[in-house]
User: Fold this.
Amino acid sequence: MSDPKIKGTTLRQAEENLDKASNRLDLDTDPGFGATLKIIGRTLTYIRYFKLRFFLKFFLFWLGLLTPLVLPWPIKIVIDNVILGLPMGAGTTIYPPYFVPFTEFLVGQSPFMIMTWVLVLVASWVVLFGAFGTSAAAQDATDGVLAQGHDTATQTENDANEGYSKVSGLIGLIEFRINIRLSQSFNHLIRSQLFSRINSLPMSVLNEQRIGDSVYRVMYDTPSLTNVFYQTIMSPIGAILTFMVLIGVMSYSYGSVPELIWLAIMMLPVQFIAMIPFSRSIRRRSQASRSAGSVTTGNIEEGMSNVLAVQSLGGNKRELQRFDADSKESFKRFRYQVFVQILVTIASAAGTALIGYLAFYLISSRVIEGVLTPGDYGVLFYYYIWLSGAVRALPYVWLRLQHSIPGIRRVFFIMDLPSEIARGGSDLAKVKKGFRFDNVSYCYSDGRRALSNISLEMKTGQIVALVGATGAGKTTLAYLLPGFYEPSEGRLLVDDIDVREVSLKSLRREVSYVFQETQLFSDTILDNIRYGKRNATLAEVQTAARIAGAHDFVMALPDQYETSLGTVSSKLSVGQKQRISIARGLLKESSVLVLDEPTSALDPETEAHLVEALHAAARDKLVVIIAHRLSTITHADKIVFLEQGVVMEEGSHNELMARENGHYRNYVMMQGSAKDEEVDT
Amino acid sequence: MTGTKEQQLANAIPAFGDAALPEDRARTADHDNHQFSQVLKIFVRTWPYLKPRVVGYWRYFGAGMSGETVTSEDGWSFRYVGALTTLLAVLCPLFGLTPWGVNWQLDLLLAASALMTVLIWSLMFLKGRLFAVCATTLVVVGVVANLFAILAVTGWLDNLQVGLVSAGCLCIWLLQYRVIAGKLEFRVRLGCHIVYYYAFIWLSTLVGTVTGLFTIDLLNQSVLQAQPLTPFMADLISEPLLSSDSVDALTVAQRQGLQWIYIAFMAGVGLLMFPLTAALPYYNVWIMQQINQDLRLALVERWHQLSMNYHSDHRVGDSVYRIYQDSAQVTAIISMLLSIVTQLTMYLVTLLFITALDPLLGLLALTIGIVAVLWGRWFSPRVRGRSVVAREANSDLTSRLQEAFGAIKVIKAFGSEEIEQRRFEGDSVVAFNSAFKVRSLVAIVSIVMFTLASAVLLGGEFMMALWAHEGRETFAAVLIGLIGLSFAKWNLAAFQWAQNEFFKTGTQIRGVLQQWSTAQDMAMGLDRVFTILDIEPDVKNDPNAIAMPPFREQIRFDDVHFSYDPERPVLRGVSFEAVPGSITAIVGPTGSGKSTLISLLTRIFDPDGGAITIDGNDLRQLDLDGLRQNISIALQENVLFAMSVRDNIRYVVPDADDDLVHEAARVACVDDYIDRLPEGLDTLLGDRGGRLSTGQRQRLSIARAIAKDAPVLILDEPTASLDAETERRVMERLASWGEGRAIFLITHRISTIARADQILYLDQGRLVERGSHETLMAIEGGRYRRFVETESRMSKRGVAGE
Assistant:
């Protein structure tokens, strides 16, 4: 509904269209096996920042494995020696060495005393590990999981704050706390890095990057990394360890049933065969679910940020329809992902059940043959469940990873985009001479040519006006000055140094840019104006505000300069906001000032005032103005007339006016005559 | 970034402990003002969103009825159910399938059938409270009778008897009829997905429980310990020779045979339940997503109805968080409530079983419940307090992101990336710290409860083990025997079964408590959703609003006053008229109230005093949507959307054809530009129409306003970013397109203003001058004249050169 292109004839096409709608740069969304491994490897390198905590988590995790080693035995004692009343030490079972001291201690005691001592042992286990038996009802695990919804975005909070311990009690609590803090720290690191990278993307990339998509990646894709962090390291190593220990204990006590161990190992190929065919499908569905979520976030964010426009246009229903369709789509994509997961679960469960029946048959046959006691059946079957669970963890990890890989890929994709900060360069002091364009051209990413072969000089002390019809390339040219865009061809020199060799930080410090669209922050007016110069005094702020024509209306506000601006502040008119943004640009101390159509919202008197102030300032500054108003343009020392990305004429107003049939002259006559006619009637 | 920077980030959050939250976020349980009843109320409020999936909808069948078009709601009747149920109730006994007097169990079932029949008859005539009492009794009797038939009575004919009666009773809810004009019509209730889902879930749980109940005996006593089967069990697997009536102990061969029966039994049940196990999780996700979607839509709809007064004080990220995370909590409600109810019921049932084995055990199990209530009273307000803080901190973080990315140009221009980075990291740390607080409390709730319950359970186990050792008599052996178990004395099987059941009480109570602790978080999330839904829009549709008649005569402002806050009036007594076919220019210094005046016309706000009328109808009496459909506007901030150029132009008229789109583009002089685009009208624009220059955006936004084809057109600074040539062309085309429409222009450009039929000069909210260009220019020292003179003096100075 919101975009007919989202519908595709095949699932594949539909998913690709979703990818395209969410981000036009990130289109190669299907990593192969090798790329998947690389993504996993890269995630794991982050462990270096968390060595100690990771080790602690590991250590406690191992401690938790003690439960299956100890707790089956008290139960056996209760059944064999208390309930069935067999004398202690009379059975054929060989207890593991660490348990022997306890059993020897119990030899000869009455069932009542045996039960008491067993109780003491188990009770201390409850306090330490939160378990008093081997059944599910007798064990507790610790997690801080809260309720979540049924799409990818709403399931991320539990991932970002993942904390888990197989056990409970004191050890469980400690492990849980270390774990959740580790997950959070890891997420914080990734989030912060991603945020920093998005902020340092070149403007040309940011033009393609939707705000909602960025929000989605930082908030909802980063938690995918946490999963990999644990799954790839904890689970397999834990599984192998559990496996080894259990086999050790089992063969020590029940050397007679090696088949059981083979059965558990058999679980591995069976599970892999059941699950592997689905891995790519899970990756694709997960990616589509994220793309659909990103589109939803992008559209809802856009509609909400521009609520005034939506309401005035009567677009409420349209926005609701758009959200309805987007949100449905995102739910649907998530459902598809669930569907594949169910298929996998069924395949896996079938395998587990088959081998499980075999295990039952084996153990119960031994009991029937009289080799084992009924008590042994409970212990052995319990061991078997643990064993096969440990083995099953490996293929399951692989599967969980497939689910996370698309999210991680989306994070790394942005992190790998070239950062404009990374280019480095020397520090630029004040701009003393000015800018020189040396045969500069600029092309958009889609290949359209915005500027062609510009050669031009802008000297400090000048006011330079960029003039031309809409779409002539004025803003693009101005964007080159603070390095928002870089020339595709040719060179732009600042004080005879190529701008590419100057650090962006210092370049932008020296170039103030006032944009066409005003963008204020939800701080006070004072903080907004001194955004570029945090330590400015109130007097300085007021001076800048006076020049921009903002002082009078600010003083009329109830809290004056301390008035807080709401996010979508409707309380100021567009013109008023524009003045605050001009004041902000004026206050920033820099040697170059670029004003992109500053005066379209100003009335003539304020404008006259501003132009005078600019003249006074221009002695040691370069001022570049983009304007349509003649009154502003004519004050310029140099006028650059652009048409379709080409400099047609440059010179002072008088020089250009002297050219018969000159482009600029025609432009002026058109405007002047229009006005003269009307005004003089 | 250097390595140390990354290490700093990695260490920004404490490795183990709590961290203090900033003062405005550091709230305790004392700040929580939700009572137990209020939490329940929040859950009850979600009913309208759950209801459609519980009660479903009616589908109509019958002569002349197509789909769901209903002529009237009257006449529907379920009066047939009495007769139907009676018929079904006597069917089996009549054919001798379930004769009276065979055994007391079957007699009990027949009595229950009779009772259900009586109840269903009474439902046809009762009303009000009595109806509710009878209906509830019917449901309870029906459920108990069915369970009894399945669990306690052998054979399947009893199940058929009770099943048929139940089906008859269900029809009262599912199927109704009426006779209209001699034609018989039916309606059937469909789409009760939640009911279907849980019916299936209970079915599969029932199968699982029943299977488990019998197999544990089969496995423990017979396969492992060579004891014969109970007669009932032997009967069930048709091996009467293995019954305790026939033998004292099983042979090895018999036990080996039982092994295979056990496997076949488990595998068979597994296979039988396979379609359910596969489909149910998907079904659940689907249902919950529908519910969530409804709540999301309600939220977004209300959000867009709220006035700018609300929006200017609230952050977009906060709303996104509410729509995503907070509203998602609705999906967990049913499972949470049902889980609590079933766990509590099961707890009570288990309590009974255990008491039957030994009253002391029952008392111990009861203690767990009491401890849980006390513990719950302590932690509930604390979880709520921390949950709210965590939710707020996370919405702040979302807002921070959204605002930073929205202002990214300014951030770059001012080189303030580092400051924004610090702010973001600060918010992120607070969000994590607050999430830690709520989650670690939820974890502790569970750990403490487990420890307390364990103490009680271990005490019980101690006694049970000794009893089993002594072979002591159980308390109510008959009752136990009733459900097919053989626990007259404490033995190994009794111990294992009792231990299992006894431990279950602990699990059940812990389950309830865990649900309840996360329910506190859910309630706080939903509370944030309902906060938005509770805000009454300032500008609302009058319930008696009339559709706006076609605009013919005039728009009239009559002494209109307006202010955002009372101390700063924005408009002070503005009066004027505008007629179709005229252009009205609104002129005045920045902040004089021009845009506000327009906001009042589109009812973004309502005036504080005075009235605005269209053809004599006050705007407040007109249907809001209808009014806005009749007014088209091109805003000063040229907001476009991330859609194709075509969809942008027909944003409010999605059905517009390409001719109309082309015509609108032509009038706005943007057709040439569109033709030059690589994909023409299909070109997708970026966020907020990115990648276009302001002038292009401005013309597209004018085209959008034109495509709406409304009788009133408002252009707010329409040509500020256009060069003189383009401006002239746009204005000329607009003038010829605008014949018969009322056009309002807000502008500083004299060339544009001078085309207007009337000019309104506003200053500080007052309409100081009004008239045509000529009239106003004739006023000596007039405000408008002074404005024009300044403007033209400056540009003339330009043209002439200094």
Observations:
- Chain B touches chain A through 204 residues (CB under 8 Å).
- Confidence is low (pLDDT under 50) at residues 65-71 of chain B.
- The longest strand of chain B covers residues 569-578.
